[in-house]
What we know:
The strands form four sheets. This protein has an eight-stranded mixed beta sheet, with helices on both faces. A seven-stranded mixed beta sheet has the order 9-8-7-10-11-12-13, covered by helices on one side. A five-stranded mixed beta barrel has the order 1-2-3-5-4. 26% of the residues lie in helices and 32% in strands. Helix 2 runs parallel beside helix 10 (414-426). The chain has helices at 80-83, 93-112, 168-183, 226-236, 290-304, 321-327, 340-352, 365-374, 393-402, 414-426, and strands spanning 12-20, 26-30, 33-37, 45-53, 58-67, 117-118, 133-141, 144-150, 157-159, 198-205, 212-218, 240-247, 259-265, 268-273, 276-281, 311-315, 332-337, 358-362, 381-384, 406-411, 429-437, 447-454.
Amino acid sequence: xxxxxxxxxxxxxxxxxxxxxxxxxxxxxxxxxxxxxxxxxxxxxxxxxxxxxxxxxxxxxxxxxxxxxxxxxxxxxxxxxxxxxxxxxxxxxxxxxxxxxxxxxxxxxxxxxxxxxxxxxxxxxxxxxxxxxxxxxxxxxxxxxxxxxxxxxxxxxxxxxxxxxxxxxxxxxxxxxxxxxxxxxxxxxxxxxxxxxxxxxxxxxxxxxxxxxxxxxxxxxxxxxxxxxxxxxxxxxxxxxxxxxxxxxxxxxxxxxxxxxxxxxxxxxxxxxxxxxxxxxxxxxxxxxxxxxxxxxxxxxxxxxxxxxxxxxxxxxxxxxxxxxxxxxxxxxxxxxxxxxxxxxxxxxxxxxxxxxxxxxxxxxxxxxxxxxxxxxxxxxxxxxxxxxxxxxxxxxxxxxxxxxxxxxxxxxxxxxxxxxxxxxxxxxxxxxxxxxxxxxxxxxxxxxxxxxxx
Length: 455
Ligand code: SAH
């Protein structure tokens, strides 16, 4: 027998927003039944229309705000609603930091039953223009090439002149490269027909060094008027160090293909996080907000509490960013990462910084680390920085058996953090404190570092 829902489709009702979902929609409850309504902020009262009901939750549309949140602001970006890249521009920055703090606290308690101190979110002084990497899909209109973003839930390209969370130099590069490609008759890739050429333009900029890289991603090997295009790009972009051509002839949403050639300048640009130097190639993973990355890693380093004699494991080490940070204070660091190219970068970055007390292995953390342990290796401190799905159960069990004195957990997903902290707490650890760090202002993402101690 189906239960009658407290609301029906097309009902018009008054609600109070209690929370935000992970995609920034307001959440209101009617007799415990959650309604998700875009653009509502916690504490606001509104009249809404129910537009869809499922068994356990429904969706609504905001008709009128009766009481506004004191944190509500006008979103500064003119394409905010169409784009969907940001979810929180209608909430002021203080409100954003508070909501992220609350989200971490709620999830840790609800999912993990973790009782610990969650510090206020560490935010940016200037929470705009922070991204060091931009990649825009290219399309065509009557008057030439356009590039910007896919309209929400579609593959329709909307032209974009600027993006307020991008470094301004990146906006300029995209505009300039579009103009130049247009001038020399480059065609845009047409996804439906798998015809045309230019698929994406990507730009990267070293925040500290100002060095820039442009990557042209095309369907075919042949880029019309290649030499002229390269010459003109090189002349018009200050700080340019590298122009790269990547060929992707597959029908896929993946942006880059397997063939990468240097058209002009260097293969890599460099940047610093703190005093560690990184060489970044077109394909390398590199954090998009280096200023906050430094804040995050410094916190991880502080939580690791190294005295210089420790042996440390950095699981899910990527290009070795955290490993190299830790290496300066540890006796030895072992990094593990599943992507072979990332480990090539990690080795190169260690050399670049003259750091010799690090070792990297390619493989799954949940396979490599248990094997190390079986061979008699142990760590005093273990750092993990897994992807959104969190740590594999086998890795958590090995940590519990290996019993490193400290565990530092860097997480981009509070829900899996909470789940994994529960496993570690049941296995003999205590979560001493958790620090949320705002790596992605204007969006719902939140990064955390947790400090655990063996008790
Ligand atoms: N610590 C790095 C990267 C963190 S992102 C930094 O701060 O830059 C998470 C990393 O985990 C990615 O590089 C991803 O390739 C890697 N990864 C995903 N699953 C893995 C697994 N099972 N074992 C090891 N690494 C994995």
